Amino acid sequence: MTEAVHTAEERQTETLRVLIVDDHDLFRTGLRNLLEEQGVSIVGEAATGTEAVRIVRELAPDVVVMDLNMPAMGGVEATRHITAVAPLTRVVMLTISDEDSDVMDAILAGACGYLLKDASIQDLVAGIRAAARGESLISPNIAAKVLQRVRATSAQPEIADMIRAELSEREIEVLKLIANGKDNALIAAELHISPKTVKNHISNILMKLQIDNRIQAAVYAVRSGIV
């Protein structure tokens, strides 16, 4: 059984179509080689945000690995454009910056992963896989910083009212656990339900609140003051 699951995961990685966006040629080449060694299909490279948006329109990759700071159109603006023109294409930020404002801007623009450039290739592949599944992979210390920063701002009770009106009690429980940094397996264990049920609840939460991914859901929940 384990072997079958492992094979399915490998197959999923092989079929992933990825665009690399970074303004440094050497970095793009090195990253391309590393990802291709892991069985990831690289459909293109871009040196600017503008070029990235054009390629996404043409090729609709599954995942974009996006640098943050580039000349002209940067990673945040490019992410905003990509999530608007190709909502099924997921964006993973890969950057040297762990500045709170950069992380917040990227997540609110629609990025569903945020990793630092000192991450291992295994972490990056895991982030790409998670993004392709519609999940989020944010370095735990970065996620904690983002939510800490949101907590420092004043709560918005009108958001809390909307959450309570839109979501069931169980969905609110799941949302609170997401905001506390729990992954699907931990949420399933805590609520004594299956991981598949957790995934269904999260899909419903995102749809009802009209947000893109779980890290945005966490930000939303913390901002509302319900967590």
Question: What would you give as the CATH superfamily of the largest domain?
Answer: Response regulator
CATH class of the largest domain: Alpha Beta
Query: How would you write the strand order of the largest sheet?
Result: 2-1-3-4-5-6
For the record, give the distance between the C-alpha atoms at the N and C termini, rounded to a whole number.
38 Å
Following the backbone from N to C, one meets helices and strands in this order, namely HEHEHEHEHEHEHHHHHH
| Multimer state | single chain
**Helical run tally:** 12
Polypeptide structure, described:
With 227 residues, this protein is of the alpha/beta class. It has helices at residues 2-15, 25-37, 49-59, 75-85, 100-109, 121-132, 140-152, 157-166, 169-179, 184-191, 195-209, 214-224; strands at residues 17-21, 41-46, 63-66, 90-95, 113-116, 137-138. The chain has two domains: 2-146, 3-Layer(aba) Sandwich (Rossmann fold), CATH 3.40.50.2300; 155-224, Winged helix-like DNA-binding domain superfamily/Winged helix DNA-binding domain (Arc Repressor Mutant, subunit A). It has a six-stranded parallel β-sheet, sandwiched between helices. The N and C termini lie far apart (38 Å).
Provide key terms for this protein.
single chain; 227 residues; alpha/beta; Rossmann fold; Arc Repressor Mutant, subunit A; six-stranded parallel sheet; 6 strands; 61% helix; 12% strand; disordered N terminus
